[in-house]
């Protein structure tokens, strides 16, 4: 779950930099791609059951 929130934070930061900095539109698109990858990752974790068994 920590990885999900970290990737979401990275996506938001990249998005803000891409919007605010002139000529950095590629960072906005990179932020969008990271956010999409994060959603796919979360969806796969939920579908598989979420947690690993405790040893």
Q: How big is the Rg?
A: 14 Å
Structural class by SSE content: mainly alpha
Order of helices and strands: HH
Major β-sheet profile: none
What is the helix fraction of residues, given as a range? over 70%
Number of domains: 1
Spans with pLDDT under 50 lasting ≥5 residues? none
**Mean pLDDT level:** 83
- What is the overall number of helices? 2
Strand content: under 5%
N-C termini distance? 19 Å
User: How many strand elements?
Assistant: 0
Shape: elongated
Provide a compact summary of the structure.
The chain crosses the membrane at residues 25-44. This protein has helices spanning 2-20, 25-48.
Notes on the protein architecture:
The protein contains two helices and no strands. The protein is 78% helix and 0% strand. It is mostly helical and 55 residues long. α1 packs antiparallel against α2. It has one domain.
Give the helices and strands, then pairings.
Elements: H1 2-20, H2 25-48
Helix pairs in contact: 1-2
Q: Which descriptors apply to this entry?
A:
transmembrane; 55 residues; transmembrane helix; single chain; mainly alpha; 0% strand; membrane
């Amino acid at each position: 779950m920590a990885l999900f929130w970290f990737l979401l934070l990275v996506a938001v930061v990249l998005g803000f930099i891409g919007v605010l900095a002139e000529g950095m539109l590629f960072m906005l698109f990179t932020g969008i791609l990271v956010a999409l990858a994060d959603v796919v990752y979360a969806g796969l974790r939920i579908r598989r059951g979420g947690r690993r068994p405790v040893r």
